[in-house]
Structure formats: structure tokens, C-alpha cells
Design goal:
about 240 residues, alpha+beta, L-fuculose-1-phosphate Aldolase, 7 helices
Length: about 240
């Protein structure tokens, strides 16, 4: 089981936000959260702020209904229900990343292809990545945002037991057992999308088999801290 008390989860959330901006997974929008290791029925998420600006003091603690349990008076993200519902439905998940990554978005709207693992670094992707479609749940004419627990629960059910769910015309949500692995998966989902799109432009391509994907994920999940150390240093050096 992941030990969330070391390293400090709040510090990791700050670093994760900055890494994901530097890697073009997040921009002025999107967010990353963590289940609170001291209060597992709550989670930690920045106040409503561009992720590149997040600091430790910006981290809020919310319950699974999206309420600020510390009554801090700070404004939270509208889509906090993405995180709240996934933590409620998936006790194995301790970190969530939501982004609007341009490389991934086409796979949420095209009927010609589905996102699938095509490289060993993205073995965590299932053979058929689910897509959450708001229209399938009666939300015709909505702004596509996950504004309440009902929509959050729909998204969590669409995610199922997968590591990634796409959101039609909106973005993606990535989950993992800890913040560092969630960052790894978010980055390599984007890389996989670019590689798959490039391969598609050449014609037929070969994807990973489910067995290859599982084996690759098992290996890479134990190595992701090497990448984190590099990304953390790159963020520290950034002006």
C-alpha cells in the first residue's frame, strides 16, 4: 500500500502542478489532487488558481461532497466534483489529474479511432479507454463541466477500474495510487496520444497487447520516481 505520509503530499501537489504546466498538460486551467493521508475521507486540492501559481498555502481540504471542511472562505474549483466522486468510488485511488490536453482531446471526439496503448511507457492505458459523454446522461446543452456530485458520479462510473477516462470535447482525467504516479500517467497519456496520432497518419500501426501493457505498467510504475526527480529539478530551475 502506498505510504502517503512520505513525502509530504501538499508539497508534492505544488510540484505536480508546476511539472504539469511545464509539460503542457495543464495551462491556466486543470488541477491535481490527493487523498488526504490523515483524513482519507477527504482530499487536498488547490483553491481556484492557475496551477502554475499554486503554493503550499493554497491547498484546501474538501470532503466527498465538495465542501471545504476547514471553512477557509477560499473559493474552490467548480469541477472539484471530479475528484470527490472518484475518491468516493475508488478507494484504491489516492491522486487525480484533470486536464484539457490538446493532444488527447481529438480522441475524445473522433468516431474513427480510440486511444489505446501504443508504447511501453503507457502500459497503464487499457485496450479501450472509456469516454464520458454528457449527452448520454441527459445533460443536453450543458457547458460540459462536472458541476455537481451527480455528474461526478457519472464520470467515476465511466472511469470504472481504468487509469484514464476521456471526456468528450472536454479533456481527460487520470488516476493513480499517488501523486507522482498520477503525474507520470498524465504526461505519458499525452505522449501516447501524439505517438498514436503520428502512427495513424502513416497508416496501420501495432498497439500493445493487454499482456504487454500489464507487464510494461508493472515495470514502469516502479521506475516513475526517476522521472519525477528530473521533472522536479527542471521546475526548480525554471525562472
Amino acid at each position: 500500500m502506498t505510504d502517503l505520509s512520505a513525502p509530504d503530499v501538499r508539497d508534492d501537489l505544488v510540484t505536480a502542478s508546476h511539472i504539469l504546466v511545464q509539460k503542457n498538460i495543464l495551462d491556466g486551467f486543470g488541477h491535481v489532487s490527493a487523498r488526504d493521508p490523515d483524513n482519507p475521507d477527504t482530499f487536498l486540492l488547490s483553491r481556484n488558481l492557475a496551477p502554475g501559481l499554486v503554493q503550499r498555502e493554497d491547498i484546501m481540504r474538501l470532503d466527498f461532497d465538495g465542501n471545504d471542511v476547514e471553512d477557509s472562505g477560499r473559493r474552490s474549483f467548480l469541477e472539484r466534483f471530479i475528484h470527490a466522486s472518484i475518491y468516493r468510488h475508488r478507494p484504491d485511488v489516492n491522486a487525480v489529474v484533470h486536464s484539457h490536453t490538446a493532444s488527447v482531446l481529438p480522441f475524445s471526439i473522433t468516431k474513427a479511432a480510440t486511444l489505446e496503448p501504443v508504447m511501453h511507457m503507457s502500459g497503464f492505458l487499457g485496450p479501450e479507454i472509456p469516454v464520458y459523454e454528457v449527452r448520454d446522461h441527459g445533460h443536453e446543452g450543458c457547458d460540459m463541466l462536472i458541476r455537481n456530485s451527480t455528474m461526478g458520479d457519472e464520470l467515476a462510473r465511466s472511469l470504472g477500474q481504468e487509469a484514464v477516462v476521456l471526456m468528450r470535447g472536454h479533456g481527460m482525467t487520470v488516476v493513480a495510487a499517488d501523486v507522482r504516479l498520477a503525474v507520470f500517467r498524465a504526461i505519458y497519456t499525452e505522449v501516447n496520444a501524439r505517438v498514436q496520432a503520428a502512427a495513424s497518419s502513416m497508416g496501420a500501426y501495432v498497439a500493445l497487447t493487454p499482456e504487454e501493457a500489464r507487464a510494461a505498467d508493472e515495470t514502469n510504475s516502479g521506475q516513475n520516481r526517476r522521472a519525477w526527480a528530473l521533472w522536479e529539478k527542471e521546475v526548480a530551475r525554471a525562472p
